[in-house]
Design brief:
With 102 residues, this protein is mainly alpha-helical. The protein contains 5 helices and 2 strands; from the N terminus they run H-H-H-H-H-E-E.
Length: 102
């Protein structure tokens, strides 16, 4: 079920996104008809590959699919600008910056 939900969410991301689907297909260098077929969750003979999915996310700059995947696995996403390096001794480690609110 997760796989079909994921494909459907990708289909929605491309077809209902702020960038027209034909423009997305050009950006990822994939024929429009092939892209639509790979995005169809009911087409058992065409599958959306991880590389194509990643190219779509980069082209649309829409990370909602990554957030969905993280949530399904019990994780969350955080932008890198919310993380800063803290040096202790010779080995650096990552630390989350916390915002104070009142």
């Amino acid at each position: 079920m997760f796989e079909k939900n994921l494909t459907k969410k990708m289909q929605d991301l491309v077809l209902d996104g702020h960038i027209p689907a034909k423009e997305v297909s050009r950006a990822i260098k994939k024929p429009y008809s092939t892209l639509l077929r790979e995005l169809n969750p009911f087409d058992a003979h065409a599958k959306l590959g991880a590389e194509t999915m990643f190219e779509i996310v980069k082209a649309t700059r829409n990370i909602s699919i990554l957030e969905f995947m993280a949530r399904e696995m019990g994780y969350t996403l955080m932008p890198l600008d919310g993380i800063r390096r803290v040096e202790r001794g010779s080995s650096p480690r990552l630390s989350r910056e916390r915002e104070t609110t009142m």
